[in-house]
Every structure is written in C-alpha cells, then in structure tokens.
Amino acid sequence: MVEDRDLHMQIGEVAQRTELSIRTVRHYDDVGLVTPSARSVGGFRLYTETDVERLLVIRRMKPLDFTLAEMKQLLESLDTLSDGESDEDARASAAAFVRQCHAKAEESCNNLRRQLAYAEELTELLSTRGAAAQI
C-alpha cells in the first residue's frame, strides 16, 4: 500500500504549498539542500511530503538569517536525530547543533520583534501627524 508521504508532487504544487517560488525550490536543489525524491520519465523534479517538510524548515530559517551551510547542517542534524540507528556521538553532535540553532532563532525573533515595534511606532507617528496635517 502506498502511503500519502510517498505520493509525488511536481514543483509547481510544492512551490504553492511552501509559498516559495519555483526558482527558489530549484535553487535549493542545486545547492544540495533539498533534492527531489524522484524524477519523472521526462526528467521533471518530483517531491514527497517529506521533501515539502524540509523546504518548510528552510523557509522558516531564511528570515532568521541562517546561512545555507547552517540550513544544510540543521537538516542533517534533524535527520540524524530522527534516525534510530545513528550512533551516540552523532546524535550528541546533532542535538548540540539543534540547540545552537534554537538559540540563534530565539535571538533573531527577539530582534525582529524589536524591529516590528519600531515600525509600528513609526506607522502610528506618521498616521497621527498625517491626520493632524489634513485641513
């Protein structure tokens, strides 16, 4: 029996589901972040639900200023942690990197919250001044 996770999607559907452009999805393949699970007879990229989940991890990392190398290492670390046959040293190293990424993500979120607060303050100031300037 074929599971839903084994069904293949073409790149357009993957781009729509992940809110990434087709060009971006292709780029992540080209740099080795997310390689399609299969190719069609015509050579088109085919993705699984697992591939989509990996792309969503990357999409979440991008606005937090993670580098491509960090993205790749985090994906590999998550794979190691989910593989029940990984050795203890590999699992410990992977867990340490995931913790490091978690700390970086928290710091980035705090910075973004601060920037958003500044933007909201400016928007309110301009709204107030704009309304007062109308005659």
Short description:
Helix content is 67%, strand content 5%.
Strand content: 5-15%
> Taking Cα atoms only, what radius of gyration do you get, to the nearest Å?
20 Å
Structural class determined from secondary elements = mainly alpha
The span between the termini is 71 Å
> Unreliable runs, pLDDT <50, ≥5 residues?
1-5
Protein described:
With 135 residues, the protein is mostly helical. It has five helices and three strands; from the N terminus they run βααββααα. The protein has helices at residues 11-18, 22-30, 49-61, 68-82, 88-133, and strands at residues 9-10, 38-39, 45-47. A three-stranded antiparallel sheet has the order 1-3-2. Helix 1 packs across helix 2 (22-30) and helix 4 packs across helix 5. The chain is flat. Mean pLDDT is 91; it is low at 1-5.
Layout of helices and strands:
Blueprint: E1 9-10, H1 11-18, H2 22-30, E2 38-39, E3 45-47, H3 49-61, H4 68-82, H5 88-133
Antiparallel strand pairs: 1-3, 2-3
Q: Which key features would you list for this structure?
A:
135 residues, mainly alpha, 5 helices
